[in-house]
UniProtKB/TrEMBL annotation:
Subunit comment: Homodimer.
Active-site residues, Swiss-Prot/TrEMBL: H37 (proton donor)
Residues where beta-alanine binds: Q61
Protein name from the UniProt record: Pantothenate synthetase
Catalytic activity field: (R)-pantoate + beta-alanine + ATP = (R)-pantothenate + AMP + diphosphate + H(+)
GO biological process terms, semicolon-separated: pantothenate biosynthetic process
Membrane-spanning parts: none
Biochemical pathway: Cofactor biosynthesis; (R)-pantothenate biosynthesis; (R)-pantothenate from (R)-pantoate and beta-alanine: step 1/1
Misc remark: The reaction proceeds by a bi uni uni bi ping pong mechanism.
Keywords noted in UniProt: ATP-binding, Cytoplasm, Ligase, Nucleotide-binding, Pantothenate biosynthesis
SUPFAM superfamilies in the cross-refs: Nucleotidylyl transferase (SSF52374)
Length: 281
């Protein structure tokens, strides 16, 4: 695997592949990779002639007081995992390569409506940062397809909408959420949990599965949201949101809507903010 930090070198390599008619798959990441990321790489590997991954801790998607500074930078370890998962080129740019005029003076991509709610409502500007950096990465890599994790469900919807609305020639694919044996979704943020918090953390997935099961038994979604929030609070979480939404646009369902829904949770456990979701279908 080759590691490239320079945009011109990246373009030259990819131009050679495309001239040879090869299919290019892309997995964008912020590094500190775990099995969840590796599974996205393998999904890309199975469908592409060439696989590019990026590791870039994107400053514009972190709000004030979020963990940009302490976000773990583990490039050497990430390189080993990416090579094992079948990556051909790792693009690991500096901030100045991605933001030549500086992050604060960057062109910004705003995806309306779907970003007004859930994560978007609790993390002002977060999805502008995500959409901006992903569109920049798409312009640099020009992949045939890109793979995103379903764990960041709203992010996936934002990217799908951006690609469709801007007619970007990239197919968006998604990979399932990987979980530990007790159900906790794999996340770089799990390492911040104390041993006692780690024991409690699987309550999020347990709550989501209970919501899904009770919904399938005919319970009303509004009542399930209220009960699930109370359950998480009793377990020591501070939820930002516990919501059942339409999976395609994250809008509130009608009272009697029973198809195509997803439950989503964001909750703090001590200093760590965890997110997870579970589609009902
Ligand atoms: O999901 C992530 O790791 C990031 O939000 C992404 C898509 C790489 C953009 O920085």
């Amino acid at each position: 695997m080759q590691t490239v930090t320079d945009a011109a070198a990246l373009r030259a390599t990819i131009r050679g592949w495309r001239t040879a008619g090869q299919v290019v798959g892309f997995v964008p990441t912020m590094g500190n990779l775990h099995e969840g990321h590796h599974s996205l790489l393998k999904l890309a590997r199975a469908r592409a002639d060439r696989v590019v991954a990026s590791v870039f801790v994107n400053p514009t998607q972190f709000g004030p007081g979020e963990d940009f500074e302490r976000y773990p930078r583990t490039l050497a370890q990430d390189q080993v995992g990416l090579a094992e998962a079948g990556c051909d080129v790792l693009f690991a740019p500096e901030v100045a390569t991605m933001y030549p005029f500086g992050p604060a003076a960057s062109v910004s991509v705003h995806v309306p409506v779907v970003t007004d709610t859930l994560e978007g409502a609790h993390r002002a500007g977060h999805f502008d940062g995500v959409a901006t950096v992903v569109s920049k990465l798409f312009h640099l890599v020009q992949p045939d397809f890109a793979v995103f994790g379903q764990k960041d469900f709203q992010q996936l919807k934002v990217i799908e909408r951006m690609v469709r609305d801007l007619s970007l020639p990239v197919k968006i694919m998604s990979g399932p959420t990987l979980r530990d044996d007790d159900g906790l979704a794999k996340s770089s943020r799990n390492q911040y949990l104390s041993p006692a918090e780690r024991q409690r953390a699987p309550q999020i997935y347990a709550t989501l599965t209970q919501m899904r099961d009770l919904f399938r038994q005919g319970h009303n979604w509004q009542a399930l949201e209220t009960a699930a929030r109370a359950r998480l609070e009793r377990a020591g979480f501070t939820p930002d949101y516990v919501a059942i939404r339409r999976a395609d646009d994250l809008a509130e369902p009608a009272t009697d809507e029973r198809e195509g829904l997803v439950a989503l949770v964001a909750a703090r456990l001590g200093a760590t903010r965890l997110i997870d979701n579970l589609p009902f279908d």
